[in-house]
Amino acid sequence: MSLSLSRDNLGDVISVYYVSIDKEPSYSEYVQLLSLLNDDMIERNSRYLFSRNRYQDLYGKLLLIIALNNLGYNRDYIKNIKYTKYNRPFFIDNLDFNISHSEKMVMCAISKTKRIGIDVEKIREIDMNNFLDIMSKEQWEQIYSNRNPNVEFFKIWTIKESVIKADGRGLVLPLKDIRIVDNRVFLEKNCWRCQYGIIDDLYYYSLSTRNCEQLTARFIKCSKCDFMKLL
User: Fold this and answer.
1) Which of the two ends of the chain, N or C, has the fewest CB atoms closer than 10 A to its terminal CB?
2) CB atoms inside a 10 Å sphere around CB 170
3) How far apart are CA 182 and CA 208, in angstroms?
4) CA distances (Å), 191 to each of 89, 105, 106, 130, 209, in order?
């Protein structure tokens, strides 16, 4: 890990753990690491058709185990995950977390005091005609007036995604109606605070939390070696 954090100074800070899947685990490593999860999570992992998606899902849970450990929870606490009727994972106490992945990047945000959401997307060429219904007229103008429309698109997209993931109801919410003013986001009657930027040069991320005057986040880079130490 690139940063060592003491357990007593993380109470009001959102910690974001991330890893790049530069080299996929061997099958034996995958099976060993999968054993750290409970039966329900293993079954959910098996639903993915492609190995990349299974590794993304597994690595997200392993980042969560590391994050929990740094907050003083034991390794098995992850097995207490429950799901809302909208399929948002949660713990029964105030602890909140959110996981996102895109291509080789996997991120996990965690907080002991705040409701949070995170989204990450690889910056790439896309056909924006496929997304006409998710942006307002003003947001499309903002995208096309930028010197790099693709980057601006993924900035706005990840902000919206992080907010609806934090809200918990997901894509049932009207994406077009989400307003963004600097680092504040307005959804229905709620105001969210967001932090966003580019990570590892190739990915745009956004992190959101509700009713927060100042969003403080720490970023901790992990590796497969950190995961193997969990065994």
Assistant:
1) C
2) 13
3) 13
4) 22, 28, 27, 28, 9
- C-alpha 35: how far from its chain's center? 23
Structure confidence at residue 7 as a pLDDT band (50, 70, 90) = very low
Are 166 and 210 contacting, i.e. CB atoms less than 8 angstroms apart?
Answer: yes
State the Cα–Cα distance between residues 26 and 117, nearest whole angstrom: 31
Q: What is the pTM of this model?
A: 0.92
Lowest mean pLDDT segment, chosen from 9-23, 78-92, 122-136, 147-161:
9-23
Asked if 20 and 200 count as a contact pair (C-beta separation under 8 A), the reply is yes
